[in-house]
Amino acid sequence: MLGFGDPVADAISLLRPRTVIGPNLRAAGDWALRFDPFLHVRIGGLVRGTCRLILEGHEPALLREGDTFMLGNPPSYVLASSLDASPRPAAPLWAGAEDGLVRIGPASEEDFYLCVGHIGFAEENAALLTDLLPPLVIVRAADPQGTRLAQLIDHLATEVGAAAAGGPLVQNHLAQILLVHMLRAHAGRTDRPAGWLGALNEDGVGAALRAVHADVAHSWSLKELAEISHMSRSVFARAFKTHVGVPPLEYLIQWRMSLARDALARDTLSISELARATGYRSESAFSTAFRRVVGSSPAQFRNRARQSGPAR
């Protein structure tokens, strides 16, 4: 069976996250750094001090000790001690980091400490998550999940540059745990996003989503999913499309094709095996669905993946 049965766990597993944590930033006095645009997710938090986060198209945000932030496919942004500080490029400083640290100002006067990292995803399915994320999510230290997230950031900051056995593995796992908690915090807010992430908090629709992920090979019907959600078919179909953005059976097809893209990129199953694993009775039916969603045949997609090298 493909997947784990939990939509968040399934999506993150399918995204093949690659994490780069650090360097941490310690600073004193007036400072400002401009970061270039980048793909996917940047995540970080303040271990000590305060700063301004200035993102194009948004009001400047004041971050305080214990606050955690997540940036989704952001444009250029600035971190600064104040709005008056003149920013300089961050890239040269990051390139010159020593022992996992970037320092600004004298060490004896440091009053700011930031832990930050980047999480990249496999390109063939990155949109599963990045299309749902706003450019900026902030979880305040005083928020319900703020204390837990601040503890994770503090633990991550300690690991960076420590040169301890298993450090990269610990950093990778902590970063993924941090990502999940940030997604939970974001999805649990009143102004929830469209898509499967927000829909998980809707009892009926969430139950149907979990059922689909638990058995993707099952020949799901609208009637079955509506019964799981304890709604009529018409009410369920409307609620699902409202929260997820597509009709239930279209979501099922898209999720199956996401699994198929991953399996083909990794060359883990034959096309006939993959057809059965994703709920199709024949290879031709699977190939037709794949071509409609992806724009190429499964064989063409697999051959391109082989030519570009093994999937991470």
UniProtKB/TrEMBL annotation:
SUPFAM superfamilies: Homeodomain-like. InterPro entries: AraC_lig, AraC_XylS_family_regulators, Homeodomain-like_sf, HTH_AraC, HTH_AraC-typ_CS, Tscrpt_reg_AraC-type_HTH. Residues 206-304 form the HTH araC/xylS-type domain. Keywords: DNA-binding, Transcription, Transcription regulation. PROSITE patterns: HTH_ARAC_FAMILY_1, HTH_ARAC_FAMILY_2. It comes from the Bacteria. Gene3D superfamilies: Homeodomain-like (1.10.10.60). GO terms for molecular function: DNA-binding transcription factor activity; sequence-specific DNA binding. This is AraC family transcriptional regulator. It comes from Streptomyces parvulus.
